[in-house]
Amino acid sequence: MFSLQLILVKAAGIEMEDRSRRAAEACDSALEALTVKVGGLSPGGSFTLAPDNKLNLSACSANWCDEYRIEESSGENGNDSFSIAGGNYWGDQLPYGIVKLFVRRWRIDTVPNYPDLREITVAVLTNSESTTPLALQTTRISIRTP
């Protein structure tokens, strides 16, 4: 009985590490996508950041949130496989066999005293009501055109 508990604790730790790694990857990919189009985006977002890195949430929409999904499919030999799909799926009904893995929220701010500099903050959460991010990253990018 003790060894079964130990195995379950070890498996839970591995699952949490994998989830944290995937959340960081989801955060990176959102930052990368947003930096490409930041010049065409207005400041705003779906949260404000409190001093303790908790989020004060506002409404989500396709402009400020999306979902990372995982799709389960059976292979020829009966083994299940999973594929991750990121994208702008906000508010869509999930088809059978697809579950939400993460919700990504972001905000874009103009840096005070630097009107050509934008700060992008991305938070990856377990669901749309969560206020504690699994991953949180910020970057600054210039929107000045040469």
Provide structural commentary:
With 146 residues, the chain is an alpha+beta fold. The chain has one domain. It contains one helix and eight strands; from the N terminus they run αββββββββ. Strands 1, 4, 5, 6, 7 and 8 form a six-stranded antiparallel sheet that branches. About 12% of the residues have low confidence.
Silhouette: globular
Distance between the termini: 67 Å
Residue windows where pLDDT falls under 50 for at least 5 positions: 8-12, 77-88
Mean pLDDT, rounded to whole units?
75
Q: Considering DSSP H and I runs of 4 or more, what fraction of the residues is helical?
A: 10-25%
What is the compact description of this entry?
The chain is an alpha+beta fold and 146 residues long. It contains one helix and eight strands. It is globular.
Key terms:
146 residues, alpha+beta, six-stranded antiparallel beta sheet, two-stranded antiparallel ribbon, 8 strands, globular
Outline the secondary-structure elements:
Blueprint: H1 2-37, E1 44-45, E2 47-49, E3 55-57, E4 65-74, E5 80-85, E6 98-111, E7 114-125, E8 135-142
Antiparallel strand pairs: 1-6, 2-3, 4-5, 4-6, 6-7, 7-8
